[in-house]
């Protein structure tokens, strides 16, 4: 039979999965010689057996507990259940990953009418003994027996009112005797006087709390999966008492400030208190600095022990302590949850202090920390203080907080922005034509769409907060308003959106603006020294390029050119290209666009001097640049009613062309290279504009590295044809040569990559379309239709448009890399889809030896860090790579309620580490 109960002497503090975080921390402190009350741990294995056994304790468990309790009795010199010299214990949960407040604790267990008298004789403090007893009765009654806690609270508050006491500490021993009497009336014969029965029931209660609704919800919300934590341990620890008078107390501290990262002890202390009093808000605690002034000797002891733990764990520590009659005991240590600012600062400080290596420092900073520093956040304390609740909630598509006046179309957004208004663009869903509204807006809100919808992708790319898929919002464009749950929000009304949580608020909510500290740039510099994977940016505008360069991008991996055709003065010309009936007419119209395109390229190339820029030739279906059939029909009817024959003829011609271009599945139809094959004049003009911009800047002495990328290639003959008809003639005319490559985004291209590689200087995986093709999922529809069901039912483990499907899409990528490099050893290979900014996907790209990833400008810092993590995980001398699980929840109600942070666990096998949550 496996061993289910361990004493501190028998335990391995590294075995967090078995002992739970709390148990492992206690054992660590014990083995470091720190003052820890002795205890034993029932393992997480016992919890799993408890559930597999129909919520009954495993056979033989209590025998093991009795045997281990003898060790505890020897260490304390007291005996469990002895009426003259009683040993009292706490029974506390402890999962492998911190789940603050989610599971149960029982203090002072072992008290009954007989041991109470023994406790009084032992301590000579009747008031303390009755205070301990009333606490135990209330905890046991509510946690173990399931009696509503409010029943006990009401009795206690009633007695306080009767006695005129404001605080618990003002009640006398006689007052507490009355509390105990009334509590016992509530409990009746349900309360067992046998301490061993108390212990057995308390162990079961702690196990049951693992599957309490709040704990289940917490694990689901924080993605704590069974491979991370599949049960709670139970810690049975000898009681030490902070409620024995004003020379006693209890407190919580951090070895550094968890909000700012400043290297000072931060925390609170409550005299004459026990257990949860500090976090329960019963009395206002004192700052740890006050303890320094009142009892400098105790403060020094605590400081020295805290810093020792920080050096041992190489992490900022969150420590619980109790002072019993002037003696300090440590009750818990765990890696502190901190704000992103504090996390990054403390990691860099510890590196500079020599506490951690560069590799350890990098492993402790996660992409979430970097993201958290880049974007403004809502002031959580303001929401709490004013009791503000959201009016709606959707998907947190792009991080950051934004406030502005509601507008319902992109043109209005631009108009209002130009007159100095901050605006939020609200749409049912967005289209490429709305992009100018994106740039004019503080943020974007849609009632439809998912995490990979147009609004989501563009918002992330340009660093705008976005909340999408808020289905409860009903938009009425005619009335210029939206309604939600009886609330009407009109154009011009102010709302605030939170791209971190997906919540929408009425009115203006204060935000904290992102100010990047020195440590942000230092950690990225360290990442650059470790990573081997290059990091470029997806950038379509000079503004995006400047941001990308500031964030350390090593070039542009994807410059989409379709944006260049959408400006009003160009769109009408491009519509002439689409309407043209022959090659000459098409070429003539396209040549009118060359000066516009050349100027666009000049601006971006100038920003990216010295770095590679990959320009993707025209990719989308042509019909996107024409009015819709419905819109044309409406205008046609109006023209006929006016009798405007010229306009009627023009609109009829345009309508015929729109219908000719209509496709059943345009994303798999006449787009990308297929447009280049059928209408090479479009690609020829684009290449001409690229080359002219390149040559002009070269004359100015600029160092440029430009390459041209052909999208949607499925067969090597496509790229060969386009090069011969549209690219090589321009190169020859101007006497230049640039690398020409292709996006690998078609399944056939992966399988025939060896043939394509002979015609291409580089590959860049377009994994958005490749994923769409592999799954035959419509990226635009899947989020709203069934992705949620697939994830909920476990058919998919994750959204394949957010993280790479390594088994399917990834296998095709691997084939393409192997075949492509076999045929062309000099082939450069990267990725420029949305996955290029996803940490899990970046790790896979590192494993299959891509040369670079390309991400949206605001994801470049994340990609730099994730690429370093990938290098570390491959095995560069970090035996215990730390992983942090995002658990965005209050750390302590009183201490840092507005903070959120990360829990760290050590993973012995770097290859088994999962991605950040």
TrEMBL record:
What PANTHER family would the database entry show? Answer: PHOSPHOENOLPYRUVATE DIKINASE-RELATED (PTHR22931), PYRUVATE, PHOSPHATE DIKINASE 1, CHLOROPLASTIC (PTHR22931:SF9)
Sequence similarity: Belongs to the PEP-utilizing enzyme family.
Q: Which residues form a coiled coil?
A: none
Q: Which residues form the PEP-utilising enzyme C-terminal domain?
A: 522-870
The record ties this protein, via InterPro entries, to: ATP_grasp_subdomain_1, PEP-util_enz_mobile_dom, PEP_util_AS, PEP_util_C, Phosphohistidine_dom_sf, PPDK_AMP/ATP-bd, Pyruvate_phosphate_dikinase, Pyrv/PenolPyrv_kinase-like_dom
Which PROSITE patterns does the record associate with it?
A: PEP_ENZYMES_PHOS_SITE (PS00370)
Tell me which Gene3D superfamilies the record gives. Answer: 1.20.80.30, ATP-grasp fold, A domain, ATP-grasp fold, B domain, Phosphoenolpyruvate-binding domains, Phosphohistidine domain, Pyruvate Phosphate Dikinase, domain 2
**For binding Mg(2+), which residues are annotated in this chain's numbering?**
745, 769
Sorted keywords for this record are: ATP-binding, Kinase, Magnesium, Metal-binding, Nucleotide-binding, Pyruvate, Transferase
Query: What is this protein's record name?
Result: pyruvate, phosphate dikinase
Q: Where is the PEP-utilising enzyme mobile domain?
A: 421-502
Superkingdom assignment: Archaea
Q: Which residues form the Pyruvate phosphate dikinase AMP/ATP-binding domain?
A: 57-295
Q: EC no.?
A: 2.7.9.1
TM segments?
none
- EC primary class: transferase
* A GO molecular-function annotation: ATP binding
Q: Which cofactor does it need?
A: Mg(2+)
């Amino acid at each position: 039979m496996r061993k289910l109960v361990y004493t501190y002497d028998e335990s391995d503090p590294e075995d967090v999965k078995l002992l739970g975080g709390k148990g492992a921390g206690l054992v660590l402190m014990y083995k470091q010689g720190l003052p820890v009350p002795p205890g034993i741990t029932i393992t997480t294995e016992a919890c799993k057996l408890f559930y597999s056994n129909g919520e009954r304790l495993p056979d033989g468990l209590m025998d093991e507990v009795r045997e281990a309790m003898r060790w505890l009795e020897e260490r304390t010199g007291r005996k469990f259940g002895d009426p003259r010299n009683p040993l009292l214990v706490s029974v506390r949960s402890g999962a492998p990953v911190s789940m603050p407040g989610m599971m149960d604790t029982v203090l002072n267990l072992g008290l009954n009418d007989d041991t109470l008298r023994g406790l009084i004789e032992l301590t000579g403090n009747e008031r303390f003994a009755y205070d301990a007893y009333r606490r135990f009765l209330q905890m046991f009654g509510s946690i173990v027996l399931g009696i509503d806690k409010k029943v006990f609270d009401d009795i206690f508050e009633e007695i306080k009112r009767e006695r005129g006491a404001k605080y618990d500490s003002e009640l006398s021993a006689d007052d507490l005797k009355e509390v105990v009497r009334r509590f016992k009336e509530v409990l009746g014969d349900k309360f067992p006087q046998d301490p061993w029965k108390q212990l057995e029931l308390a162990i079961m209660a702690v196990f049951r709390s693992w599957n309490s609704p709040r704990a289940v919800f917490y694990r689901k919300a924080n993605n704590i999966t069974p491979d991370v934590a599949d049960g709670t341990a139970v810690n049975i620890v000898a009681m030490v008492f902070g409620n024995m008078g004003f020379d006693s107390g209890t407190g919580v501290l951090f070895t550094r400030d968890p909000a700012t990262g400043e290297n000072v002890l931060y925390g609170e202390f409550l005299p004459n208190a026990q257990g949860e009093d500090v976090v329960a808000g019963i009395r206002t605690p004192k700052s740890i600095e006050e303890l320094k002034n009142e009892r400098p000797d105790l403060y020094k002891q605590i400081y020295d022990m805290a810093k020792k733990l920080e050096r041992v764990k190489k992490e900022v520590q969150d420590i619980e302590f109790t002072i019993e009659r002037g003696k300090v005991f440590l009750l818990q240590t765990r890696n502190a949850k901190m704000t992103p600012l504090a996390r990054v600062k403390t990691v860099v400080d510890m590196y500079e202090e020599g506490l951690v290596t560069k590799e350890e420092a990098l492993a402790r900073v996660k992409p979430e920390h970097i993201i958290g520093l880049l974007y403004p956040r809502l002031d959580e304390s303001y929401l709490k203080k004013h009791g503000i609740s959201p009016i709606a909630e959707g998907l947190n598509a792009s991080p950051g907080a934004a406030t502005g006046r509601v507008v319902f179309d992109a043109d209005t957004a631009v108009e209002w922005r130009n007159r100095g208004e901050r605006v939020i663009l609200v749409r049912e869903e967005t289209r490429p034509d709305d992009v100018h509204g994106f740039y004019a807006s503080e943020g974007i809100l849609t009632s439809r769409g998912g995490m990979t919808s147009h609004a989501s992708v563009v918002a992330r790319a340009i660093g705008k907060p976005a909340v999408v898929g808020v289905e409860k919002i009903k938009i009425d464009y005619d009335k210029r308003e939206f309604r939600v749950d009886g609330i009407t929000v009109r154009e011009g009304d102010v709302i605030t959106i939170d791209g971190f949580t997906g919540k929408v608020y009425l009115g203006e909510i204060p935000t904290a603006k992102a100010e990047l500290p020195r440590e942000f740039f230092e950690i990225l510099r360290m990442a650059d020294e470790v990573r081997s994977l290059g990091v470029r940016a997806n950038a379509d505008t000079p503004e995006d390029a400047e941001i990308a360069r500031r964030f350390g991008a090593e070039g542009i991996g994807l410059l989409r050119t379709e944006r260049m055709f959408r400006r009003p003065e160009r769109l009408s010309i491009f519509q002439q290209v689409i309407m043209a009936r022959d090659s000459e007419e098409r070429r003539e119209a396209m040549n009118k666009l060359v000066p516009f395109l050349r100027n666009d390229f000049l601006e971006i190339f100038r920003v990216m001097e010295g770095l590679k820029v990959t320009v993707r030739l025209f990719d989308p279906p042509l019909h996107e640049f024409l009015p819709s059939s419905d819109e044309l029909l409406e205008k046609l009817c109006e023209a006929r009613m006016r009798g405007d024959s010229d306009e009627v003829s023009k609109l009829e011609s345009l309508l015929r062309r729109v219908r000719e271009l209509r496709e059943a599945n345009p994303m798999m139809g006449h787009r990308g290279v297929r447009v280049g094959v059928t209408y090479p004049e479009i690609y020829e003009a684009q290449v001409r504009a690229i080359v002219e911009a390149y040559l002009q800047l070269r004359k100015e002495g600029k160092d440029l590295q430009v390459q041209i990328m052909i999208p949607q290639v499925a067969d090597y003959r496509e790229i060969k044809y386009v090069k011969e008809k549209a690219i090589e003639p321009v190169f020859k005319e101007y006497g230049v040569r640039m690398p020409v490559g292709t996006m690998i985004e078609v399944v056939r291209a992966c399988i025939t990559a060896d043939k394509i590689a002979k015609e291409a200087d580089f590959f860049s995986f377009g994994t958005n379309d490749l994923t769409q093709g592999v799954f035959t999922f419509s990226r635009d529809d899947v989020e709203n239709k069934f992705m949620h069901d697939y994830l909920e039912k476990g058919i998919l483990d994750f959204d394949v448009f957010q993280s790479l499907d390594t088994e399917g899409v990834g296998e095709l990528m691997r084939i393409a890399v192997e075949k492509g490099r076999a045929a062309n050893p000099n082939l450069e290979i990267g990725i420029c889809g949305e996955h290029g900014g996803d940490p899990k996907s970046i790790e896979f790209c590192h494993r299959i030896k891509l040369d670079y990833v390309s991400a949206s400008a605001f994801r470049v810092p994340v990609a730099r860090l994730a690429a370093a993590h990938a290098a570390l995980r491959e095995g560069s001398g970090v035996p215990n790579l730390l992983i942090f699980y995002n658990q965005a929840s209050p750390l302590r109600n009183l201490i840092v309620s507005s903070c959120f942070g990360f829990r760290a666990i050590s993973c012995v096998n770097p290859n088994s580490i999962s991605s950040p949550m």
